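Continuing the batch. This is chain 6 of the set; chains 1 through 5 are on the previous pages. Same settings as before, nothing changed between runs. Recording input and output for traceability.
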Amino acid sequence: MLPTRRLLLISLAVFSAPFVNAQPGTPAQSFHAQFIDLNRRLLDMAKDWPADKYGYRATKDVRSVGEIFVHVASGNAYAAKAGRGEKANWDEIDPKPYKTKAEVVAMFEKAMNDATAALKATPDDRFTKTVQPWLAVIEHSAEHYGQLVVYYRNNGMVPPESRPKK
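Output for chain 6:
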């Protein structure tokens, strides 16, 4: 079994590489950059995805596009609470009240901003003691980012991050 410190460094390298182009700094800086960049990419997708396709599912047994954004927002809501030191459970946000693209995007953006504020308020030295909840939420969000990339491709679309830069 790998020692905790070595596992942390490997995790930082693996999870940071696809999203952060700058040289890694402190663990706190790496988590900030990773979390903010990943959420930016997801928000870009939420805003970009056509409203009339928010109900799209790859198969009948998986979440729709809109439900995925609500589900990822659930992780951000958890991170905001846990990051502030509040007692937190991963309580799934019910997607039913969010019927339109605008409602989903607004809810996602609020959850993202709350979590980002909690992360920025986290003292840097805390990352020498624990990387939670941030590592778990980043990993979870990255899984769904990949899922959404496939949804884009299934619908003949190019994800925002894969488009040529002007």
